[in-house]
Amino acid sequence: MIKRADIEDADVLADLAVRMWPDNNLNTLIELFRRLTQNDDSVCFIQYDENKPVGFSQCQLRYDYVEGTHSSPVGYLEGIFVLEEYRRKGYAAKLLLECEKWAKEKGCTEFAGDCELDNADSLSFHMAMGFEEANRIICFKKKL
Q1: What is the pLDDT of residues 87-124, one digit of tens each?
Q2: Are the CB atoms for 119 and 93 separated by under 8 Å?
Q3: What predicted TM-score, i.e. pTM, was given to this entire model?
Q4: 21-42 pLDDT, tens per residue?
Q5: What residues have CB less than 8 Å from 138, skipping those under 6 apart?
Q6: Element spanning 93, H or E
Q7: Domain 2-114's class?
Q8: Exposed, middle or buried, 114 (CB in 10 Å: 0-12/13-18/19+)?
Q9: Which parts of 49-89 fold into alpha helices (H)?
Q10: Among 31, 20, 2, which Cα is nearest to 121's?
């Protein structure tokens, strides 16, 4: 079962998200998901296996330029995660489909996402889900 998350689900979302983004603080993620679930330009979904939350997806509308797209807003997959022992059951594909349906309802004609250059699993997932690679970039930073 997939549930559209609301503010009461922020802790469940954060618990899953910190496994994907381990450099983040759990309490910071809880606050982030509280805000996101209350924002009309974002949505989160939780995948359950029986009564256990086993995965989530987060997407939002992006109004700024999104690499390789030609419209605005664009639905953007910000994150998708399924616990390792529940992978290969189609859960990620179902979560992505919910995000795409939401983006269409919001008037989007394009949907995008990204992954780190060295994240082979994410690249494989995106390609299997019908995404096409738009570009590869290397980002830079420096302290001032």
Answers
A1: 999 999 999 999 999 999 999 999 999 988 888 888 89
A2: no
A3: 0.91
A4: 999 999 999 999 999 999 999 9
A5: 117
A6: helix 91-105
A7: alpha beta
A8: middle
A9: none
A10: 20
